[in-house]
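__Protein archive entry__

___
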Amino acid sequence: MNFREVLGNSTTRRMRLIEELYYNRDGFPSDQLLSELECSLPILLDDIRLINEQIDNFQIEKYKGIYRLLVQDRVSIGNMYADILINSPEFQIIEQLLYEECDNITNLADRLYLSVSNTQRCLKKVKLALEKAGMHLRYRPLRIEGKESVIRHFYYYYFIEKQNAFENLLPMLKDEQFNAIEEFVIEFIEKNGLYRKYIFQKRLIYNVYVSLWRIKNGHEYPANELRKDGFILPDPQTYNDLDKTTKELFNVPLTDETVRDCLWLIYSDAVVFSIKHREMALADNSRYQILFRQHFELTKEFNKLTGGKMDQRGLIDTTTVLLNDCYLYDRNGAFVSILRRSRNTFLSLASVMYQKPIERVKEIVQEFVTKYAMYREEDFVMNYVYLLLTAERDSLPMLIEQNKKVRILLLSDLTPTEEDFLATHIRRMALGNFEIYCFEQVVERKQGMYKEMLNFDALITTGSVEGLPDDFPVIVMGPYVTTKSLVSIQNLINELSLKNELAQ
C-alpha cells in the first residue's frame, strides 16, 4: 500500500512526470509522456510550466522535440518527495494524527490553516488509505489505531522521506534532546555488538522518537511480544540524559519497560542485526523460528537459480534479511510505503536488460507466498525479489551464467582491428554465459556463408542480411556499442540462455 494515493491528481501527475524524466535522462517526446501520464497535451504543458515556476531543483526543457529534466547539483529525487510531504495537506494531517493534539476536525483545520471543508475532504482520503494498510482513523482525539508495529513503521518511513538529508531533523526536538536519543541508541548498538550501519542507527533513533509519541498517547507496544532481557542498556549517565528528555517533551519517565517499548524493533525481534540476537530469536521465539524455516526454503531456491554459490552462512544471512523486512507485518497484512518506490524502480530499470532472469526470481517468490499463504500482496512479492537480487552482489550475471554458453557470431564490414575492438566492448559490457566469435572462414558463395552462420545461436552484424531463416536471431548495429544496442544484445543473451535452459 503506497500512500501516494492520498495526493490530489495534479500533484500525483507532476510527481510522476518528474520521476519519468529523472530515471530516463535521455528524455521523452510528448506523445510518450502523454501515454505514460494519461493526460492531454494542454495539461502536460501546464504541468511543465508550473514545475519550472515553482520547483527550483528540477527544471524541464524541450530540445528538438524531446523533454528532459535538469537537476541541480547535489539534489536527488528525494528532495521532490520531501517537498511534497511538507506541502501536502493530506500528509500534514497524517503527521498531526501522531501527536493527537486535535480533538475534532475544527481544531485540526485551525492548526493547519485549512478550511473545515478542505480538512474533511483530505481526512476522508487519509481514512481510506489507512484502512487499506490495516490502520484505522479514530476520533476525539483524532488518532490512528491498529497493529502497533505497522503504525510505528509507517511513521518512521514518513519522517525519513520528509527529511531527505543526512542530518537528523525531527519536529519539536531541541538539539540536546535529539543528542540524548542519538547517544542512547549509539551506546546501545555498541554494547550489544549490533552491526554498525548508519541507516540502522538512524532507524532506531527515529523509532525511539515515534515510539515516545505513541507511549505518551497511551499506545504501548504489546508487552508479551517484547523480550524482557538479553540486551545491555547504556551507562547511567546516558540513561539519565534520555530520561530528562522523555520527561520534558513527552511527560514519560524512562523505565526499563519504556526502553523496551522504544526499542521495540530489537526487543520484538522485528529486526535482527547481530549473530547473537539471531541465535536468541531462533532459540525461544516460535514465530521467528517458523518464519525463518519457511524463508530459508526461499533462499535455497534462489541459491539454486544462481548456481548454488552461497555457503551456509550466506544462506542464513540472506534469510535474516528477508525476515527483517516482513516480520513486523501480519502474514495477511499490507506492505506499507509512503511516496518512494525506489525498489520497484530498480526492478523496472533492471528489467530492461534482465527481464527473463528477474521473472524467474519472481516465479519462485510467487510459489513461496502461495505455498505458505502469506505476504501475497504484489508489493511484498516485488520486495522479496528486490531483496534476493541485492543480497547477492553478482546475482544478475549469476542467474544468466548457469545456462549453456550462447555462441554469437559477429559479422561486419569493419577492418579486423575495428571488429576486434567492437567484439571486446560487447564482451566487457554485456553479462551472461556467452562468447562473441568473429567470422574468419573462407566460404564459397552466399549459401556457404549462411550455412556457416547457422552453426551459431545468433548473429550481430553492422550490415543488412537476407536469406537467413525468419526465426534466426539477428541484431543490426553500428560500428560502436550504444545504449540501445547494448540493451538489445543483453536481451538476446537472456532469451537464448533461457531457451538453452529449457532445452536441457
